[in-house]
Design goal:
CATH superfamily: Alpha/Beta hydrolase fold, catalytic domain
CATH topology: Rossmann fold
Number of strands: 13
Strand content: 15-25%
CATH architecture: 3-Layer(aba) Sandwich
Radius of gyration: 19 Å
C-alpha cells in the first residue's frame, strides 16, 4: 500500500495484478489514472469537453424489451445460477432474472445473505451478466469473498432503468425498486435492508445503478459504477423536441428531469449518501463516450466531500470483459468491504 499527499490531502494506492487502485480520501481534488503498472495524479479540476451535452441529445432509440428470454444457444449457466421469473404489476408482464446462490446456501438454512444486484447494459437482458456470477463463485470457492447472492435482472433495452413517462410498459425503476427487490427478499434468505444490498452495472447498467443508488441511498450500502455514463439530465430538458432523448423517455415535465439527474440527486440526498453508501467508479481512458461525464461525476463527489474510490484503466475502451479481466482478483473486494462496514454499523456482525 502506498500513500501520498498533494495540496494537503491524501490518497492511497494499491497495486494488484499490475493495476493501480487509488483510494480518494475526503478533501482530495483531482484525477487518478489507474493503469497497468503506473499511476499519475492531475491536480486541476477536470470538466467534460464541449459538445458532450449535444451528443447526449442524440442518444438512442425508444425503450424496448422482451421481458422473458430463453437461454441463449451455446451459453452454459455458471455453477449456482438459475433462471427465474416473477410477475410485475408495474409493467404488466412476467419479468426474467438470473440468480446466483452460493455453494452453502441449501446447507445453512438459518443463514441470511447479502445481495449484489448486477444491471446489464443497453441491448442486454437477464442473461448478459453471467460472467459476473462466474467470477463471484470462483472467489467464494477460493475463500477470497464471503458467500453472497447475486441477482441479474432484465432491465430492457435503452430504458436506463428509469420509469418512462411516455410509455407505461417501461416502468423499470418501479419494477426494480418496488417489486423485484421485495420479491427477492421474500423468496430468498436475504439481509433485507440497505446494510445487505449492493448495486452495480456496466454502461447503461452503471448509469442506472448510479442513479438508483443516488435516488435511494438508504436501500444500498455499496455502488460500483462500471463505465456508466452520468450526464446532467436536467440540462437536457427541451420540450420543443419531444421526439429527442431524453424527452422521448421522460416526457414534458421538467421536474421529472431534475428527479432523475444524478448530480441533483447527489445534492438532495447528500446526508444519506455520506452516512451509509460507499461508491466505486471505474472507466477506461479510451472510453470516449462515457469517460467525460464519469470524470465530471468524480469531481462532483470530491467537491461534495463524498469519500469514494475512482479508477481509470489505461488504454481500455468500452469493453466489460476486458475490464473484468484486469480487475478480476479484486472485482468484488469493494462490495465485500462495504458489506462488512454496513454490518458493523447495524450491529449485525
Amino acid at each position: 500500500m502506498k500513500r501520498s499527499r498533494q495540496n494537503g490531502s491524501a490518497c492511497s494506492s494499491l497495486c494488484i495484478n499490475g493495476v493501480v487502485i487509488v483510494r480518494w480520501y475526503l478533501g482530495v481534488l483531482g484525477l487518478v489514472v489507474a493503469c497497468w503498472g503506473s499511476c499519475s495524479v492531475v491536480s486541476a479540476q477536470l470538466v467534460a469537453p464541449e459538445g458532450y451535452k449535444e451528443a447526449h441529445l442524440r442518444e438512442g432509440n425508444p425503450p424496448a424489451a422482451v421481458w422473458v428470454n430463453p437461454q441463449p444457444a451455446g451459453v452454459e449457466l455458471p455453477e449456482g445460477v438459475s433462471h427465474q421469473t416473477f410477475h410485475s404489476d408495474a409493467i404488466g408482464e412476467d419479468i426474467g432474472f438470473c440468480v446466483y446462490l452460493p455453494p452453502n446456501y441449501d446447507q445453512e438454512s438459518d443463514r441470511r445473505y447479502p445481495v449484489i444486484y448486477t444491471l446489464h447494459g443497453n441491448g442486454g437482458n437477464e442473461w448478459k451478466c453471467l460472467l459476473d456470477a462466474e467470477v463471484l463463485h470462483e472467489g467464494i470457492v477460493a475463500g477470497r469473498w464471503p458467500s453472497v447472492i447475486m441477482v441479474m435482472p432484465n432491465g430492457g433495452h435503452n430504458t436506463f432503468y428509469k420509469d418512462s413517462a411516455v410509455d407505461s410498459k417501461f416502468r423499470v425503476e418501479t419494477m426494480f425498486i418496488k417489486e423485484l427487490i421485495p420479491h427477492i427478499d421474500a423468496t430468498y434468505r436475504t439481509i433485507a435492508d440497505g446494510s445487505g444490498r449492493c448495486i452495480e452495472g456496466f454502461s447503461m447498467g452503471g448509469r442506472g445503478s448510479t442513479r438508483l443508488a443516488m435516488k435511494y441511498p438508504d436501500m444500498f450500502c455499496s455502488l460500483f459504477c462500471q463505465a456508466g455514463n452520468v450526464p446532467r439530465i436536467a440540462t437536457l430538458y427541451d420540450p420543443a423536441h419531444p421526439e429527442t432523448y431524453p424527452n422521448s423517455l421522460l416526457g414534458p415535465d421538467r421536474e421529472n428531469y431534475v428527479n432523475n439527474d444524478v448530480f441533483e440527486l447527489l445534492q438532495k440526498n447528500l446526508k444519506q449518501i455520506k452516512k451509509g453508501l460507499r461508491i466505486q467508479i471505474a472507466c477506461g481512458t479510451k472510453d470516449g463516450g462515457h469517460l467525460p461525464t464519469v470524470r465530471e461525476f468524480h469531481v462532483a463527489l470530491l467537491e461534495a466531500g463524498v469519500d469514494h474510490t475512482y479508477i481509470e484503466l489505461e488504454g481500455l475502451a468500452h469493453k466489460k470483459t476486458e475490464m473484468i479481466a484486469r480487475l478480476r482478483p479484486i472485482w468484488f473486494d469493494y462490495h465485500v468491504e462495504s458489506l462488512r462496514r454496513a454490518a458493523e454499523r447495524s450491529g449485525k456482525n
